[in-house]
Design goal:
Elements: E1 2-5, E2 8-11, H1 16-26, E3 36-40, H2 45-56, E4 60-62, E5 65-70, E6 73-82, E7 86-89, H3 91-96, H4 101-123, E8 135-139, H5 147-157, E9 163-170, H6 173-180, E10 185-190, H7 210-217, H8 231-238, E11 240-241, H9 249-256, E12 261-264, H10 272-289, E13 293-299, H11 300-310, H12 319-322, H13 337-355, E14 362-367, H14 371-385, H15 387-397, H16 408-416, H17 424-436, H18 446-470, H19 475-498, E15 511-514, H20 517-520, H21 536-544, E16 548-554, E17 557-562, E18 571-575, H22 583-588, E19 594-598, H23 604-608, E20 613-616, H24 627-631, E21 632-635, H25 637-640, E22 643-647, E23 649-650, H26 660-664
Parallel strand pairs: 3-4, 3-8, 8-9, 9-10, 12-15, 12-16, 13-14, 13-15, 16-22, 17-23
Antiparallel strand pairs: 1-2, 5-6, 6-7, 11-19, 17-18, 19-22, 20-21
Helix pairs in contact: 1-2, 4-7, 10-13, 14-15, 14-18, 15-17, 16-18, 17-18, 18-19, 19-21
Length: 675
Amino acid sequence: MTELKGDAPHRVFRDRHEAGRVLAELLEHYRGAPNLLILGLPRGGIPVAWEVAAALDAPMDALVVRKLGAPGNPEFAIGALSSGGRIVLNDDLVRALRLTAEQVRAVATAEAEELRRREGAYRAGRGPVEVAGRTVILVDDGSATGASMRAAVDAVRAGEPERIVVAVPAAPESTCRELGAAVDEVVCATVPSPFRAVGESFWDFAQVTDAAVRTLMTTTTTGIAVPPTDAAAIVRAAAIPAPAGVPADDVLSDIVGAADVVLIGESSHGTADFYAARAKITRFLIEQKGFTAVAAEADWPDAHRVNLYLHGQGRDATAEQALRGFERFPAWMWRNTEVRDFLTWLHEHNVRQHEHGSRRTGFYGLDLYSLHRSMAEVIGYLDTVDTVAAQRARIRYGCFDHTSGDDGQAYGFAAAFGAGRSCEAQAIRQLVELQRTTVDGTELDPAVDRHFDAVRNACSVRDAEAYYRTMFGDRVDSWNLRDRHMADTLDALREHLDAGRQRDGEQRARIVVWAHNSHVGDARATEMRAQGQLTLGQLVRERYGERCVSIGFSTCAGTVTAADEWGGPALRRSVREALPSSVEELLHDTGIGEFALRMDRPGDAVERLRHPRLQRAIGVIYRPGTERQSHYFHTRVAEQFDALIHIDRTTALEPLEPSGEWVAGTIPETYPSGL
């Protein structure tokens, strides 16, 4: 049951009891845990906690917490009070409101009276809740600021439990993350965006009465559990065989349908299995479905060198040589054995296509990091067609000379903090001048292709300048600028490749996109939307509708090639087992090593995967020590992709020039992001 909020749906519960049953499904891995205890926060959390406890066949009790409201505005929480007189205050709010210690003490004293009344009414005079050595699941009906729950966590931790879990039906993503840093696990059944109030996630959010609480507190939750819903079995029944991550041709053909753009993701930039499966799927799309372009999460000039090789041009005789243009960190992302082997095949395919007079397939970059490299390409092109225009370009791009080498971050830092000039106007003027220069012909004409390449490099300069300037400010702005650039480059590429096709009666250009899951998935189905972020996948869906398809990848554990920090060497790292309540754990529990799921048609598995779950995302940096905070975010995977391919155990991508550290093998993990 869902309803639309803005342009992205989120779960709306019939009442607190239904919310508790949904939470119980997400907490199913705790069924049978020894010394399990469910604690509800009265009053609204008690019906939710009762359903969780009944489903997990566990005892339930109440942990009374009182919100501390600001003087004159009791609904505005400045902190909370829990059993034993423990107080949690939001120091920033206390300072902002200029509250004195006496004012805070007065509020706490008043709430302490109500706390004692409720403990007497709900717990029938029982002493403190015994939590030592137990797994404690704290449940409320929602959490806006998290103040009450943090007070409850502090109260429980004082009793030395073995494990603390927080479970709520609805909360903003920021609160889920803050609580996640304080306890062993947090389960938020839905993360509405924008978040206005807990009550908006319920059809019936009537106040829970003291009488209702007392009734539930005296109704047993043990020995009455109904057989659990086996989510893994439901997903298992919907699983489609996908050996090595590749579904059968007829399945792929049906998933793709008439789409002109197929986005294929990866949940890490360093997993060989994802790259190999993506290459095999792309081969099928090229050979059987008429796709003639691969657009990758790569810089335009680096990919253009590969494209020249694929078209029998340039100076490179092998795929490995053509990949040497990828010099910037992380070089292994494209300079690896899987990409090399795919490009070798594609070159041979293009030779056969050319012999038969058919169109060849190109390889293009969508990214924007190539600030200085793209400037050099623009000037180099103009040197061959208009030396006067080339001199104008040198003067304009000379604005960037106060930073050395290809260090876009150094330029951005200087421009953002007033230590250097902003070159925005110069970058725009150069792009406009190139765009005003037209070359007649189709994309098959070398002159047209070279001009298009120059324009795309000039666009990269313009957007890279803005990206590096904004990256030291709001992260959302720089992320959105980058994904918009990728979407705009994809649009321009389609338009370029379409030139002459309609005249010749051919179908529109069909393009495969290679990028990380976090880019090809729809941001509206993830917590990214709550932060104001958008993605390439969202933009493509909005622009192309049913003419696009997105396919994601996932894994439970294995090894990955990644760095410890930005600019560091490529290391072969062990990937920790998927966290509880994650998509990856659910898929692992099916017991199937490799399979695909379709989310483009209704079914029980799709409904299960509409519930928010954690999803892992490893970019070029892997930090196992902070994995929950660094590499997981909430998604509704059934709305994020049209299909998902799971490979349960995966292996690290092999760089073409592996470092000594990589060759040495995986690093043992004790409890160990650039996407």
